[in-house]
Amino acid sequence: HLSEIRHHLSEIRHHLSEITHHLSEIRHHLSEIRHHLSEIRHHRSEIRHHLSEIRHYLSGIRHHLSKIRYHLSEITHHLSEITHHLSEITHHLSEITHHLS
């Protein structure tokens, strides 16, 4: 009986050793998971930073487009004024031509 008990105790030690090994492997993989989660957090933070920059630059683009619209509107106004004055000049040249004939 003693030899059988020794045999079973030996088997138990073997299986406890295996369990220890697998627990060690689990710890290793959990550590890897923590590392990759940390990397994911870092990349998400980078994305937030770049999105914030993109929003800032888009806001700048909108501002400058708005200014361009204003200046185009001013150009249109001044071209309209030039057209008016050219029309007046045409009228007066016509009057001169009339008086010369």
Structure description:
The chain is mainly alpha-helical. The protein is built from one helix and no strands. The longest helix has 99 residues, at 2-100. The radius of gyration is 43 Å and the shape is rod-shaped.
Quick recap:
With 101 residues, this protein is mainly alpha-helical. The protein is 98% helix and 0% strand. It has one helix at residues 2-100.
Q: What is the element layout, followed by pairings?
A:
Layout lengths: L1 H99 L1
What helical percentage do the residues reach? Answer: over 70%
Strand coverage percent? under 5%
Order of helices and strands: H
Q: What is the terminal separation in angstroms?
A: 146 Å
Instruction: Please mark out the parts with pLDDT under 50 across 5 or more consecutive residues, or reply none.
Output: none
Instruction: Please state the average pLDDT score.
Output: 98
> How many beta-strand elements?
0
Shape: rod-shaped
Instruction: Figure out the total of helices.
Output: 1
Largest sheet: none
